[in-house]
Design a protein that fits this description.
The chain has three domains: about 100 residues, Serine Threonine Protein Phosphatase 5, Tetratricopeptide repeat (Alpha Horseshoe); about 55 residues, no CATH class; about 170 residues, Jelly Rolls (Sandwich), CATH 2.60.120. Strands 3, 4, 5, 8, 10, 13 and 15 form a seven-stranded antiparallel sheet that branches. The protein has eleven helices and 15 strands. The two termini are about 35 Å apart. Helices cover about 40% and strands about 20% of the residues. α1 packs antiparallel against α2, α4 crosses α5 and α5 packs across α11. It is α+β, with helices and mostly antiparallel strands and about 375 residues long.
Length: about 375
């Protein structure tokens, strides 16, 4: 018997014993057995479904939401199985319970976060952010306000949908364009001095990507030199880009509690394509400053193509459908970062940051031990 088959059989036996204990009313025993089953093979989402159900029955709704959320991370279809026809009825029923509980939990988390923000910032008008929609877990039906703008995580109704931004809305474009030669010089120097800092833009664990992403997933076909990634600084690269960061001080960068959300040099190799997709949120713009343009490289936003122009800022809302390509034989390099939507007030910017931080903090604290 192979180790994989042996592990599967052990997990199945544990789940069978857990279900028997559950049916006998021995919920604590069932919970312990489901926990053991997950430990046996943490990549199988089914035991998470049953373990969360028992924790909920034991009166531990937050613990159940943690376990179900971890299961949904393994397979996004986890909380949607109840919508399909056929299949095991017990799976469908527990999937529905998981779906309802996760949506209710995250709605409550956002409401609590906004209440705390208002308490700490009396007079702040953040009603638009309080009414924001976490698209994957919202607990009510909703519609996007533009057919081609479909952020997959966070959506604030009422923000003007702007596919592509102009310098009139963002006067700091000129500051970056004036600094372009210095920024390019720093990149060319760093490209040699810190070549080992380049990493795939898409991590190996990126989920939900189709086969069309395979050429660039976990590959330097789409590489990046990240000065900041999800707020985490790279001290070695930061030291190499003083002029770049000085220019960016004039930009309303999207922030996290630990620093700018993302600042990087995006390197798309020749012959590569970034497939059509939608970004995370409609609260910011994605900004490109082309550094090295090899020709025959562009971006498409909705159905309009824009060829990169070295030294000229291109900013767009990546919540709109977009794709990019480099049909040349040489790398295309752009400075890339996120700046706030110009219609957001400073209070609203801080409220969005708080909302994302609250969700990330809860996600980081999830556990199987309850």
């Amino acid at each position: 018997m192979t180790p994989e088959k042996d592990t599967t059989q052990i997990q199945n036996r544990l789940c069978s014993s857990a279900l028997e204990a559950e049916e006998a009313g021995k919920l604590a025993e069932a919970a312990a057995l489901y926990n053991q089953a997950i430990r046996c093979d943490a990549s199988n989402p089914i035991p998470y479904l049953f373990y969360g159900f028992v924790l909920q029955a034991l009166g531990q709704p937050d613990a159940a939401a943690q376990v179900w959320s971890l299961g949904a991370d393994l397979d996004p279809r986890f909380i949607n199985a109840w919508q399909g026809e056929g299949g095991d009825e017990i799976i469908r029923l527990r999937s529905k319970a998981a779906n309802d509980a996760i949506r209710s939990h995250f709605a409550g988390l956002h409401e609590t976060c906004m209440d705390e923000f208002r308490g700490a910032n009396p007079g702040a008008n953040v009603e638009r952010i309080a009414a924001a929609i976490w698209c994957q877990t919202h607990n009510e039906a909703f519609e996007y306000q533009h057919p081609e703008q479909r952020p997959h995580l966070f959506f604030v109704p009422g923000l003007e949908p702007i596919p592509v931004y102009t310098a009139q809305r963002s006067p700091w474009f000129e500051i970056l364009e004036t600094a372009w030669a210095d920024i390019k010089g720093e990149f060319l120097a760093a490209q040699d001095a810190a070549a080992d800092e380049q990493a795939p833009y898409l991590d190996a664990g990126a989920k939900g990507l189709g086969v069309e992403w395979e050429p660039i997933a976990a590959s330097l076909n789409w590489g990046s030199f990240h000065l900041y990634k999800m707020g985490a600084p790279n001290p070695r690269l930061i030291e190499l880009f003083p002029n770049t960061l000085r220019a960016l001080e004039q930009v309303p960068l999207v922030q996290t509690p630990t620093g700018p959300s993302e600042i990087l040099f995006s390197v798309l190799q020749g012959g590569q394509r970034i497939p059509s997709h939608f970004g995370v949120a409609n609260t910011d713009m994605t900004v490109h400053l082309p550094i090295i343009f090899p020709g025959d490289a562009a971006i498409r936003v909705i159905d309009t193509d824009y060829e990169w122009q070295p030294g000229k800022v291109f900013a767009f809302d990546d919540a709109f459908r977009h794709e990019s390509w480099n049909n040349s034989a040489l790398p295309r390099v752009n400075l890339l970062f996120e700046a706030w939507h110009p219609d957001l007030s400073e209070d609203e910017q801080h409220a969005v940051t708080a909302a994302f931080h609250a969700r990330a903090h809860w996600n980081q604290g999830r556990s199987l031990e309850h």
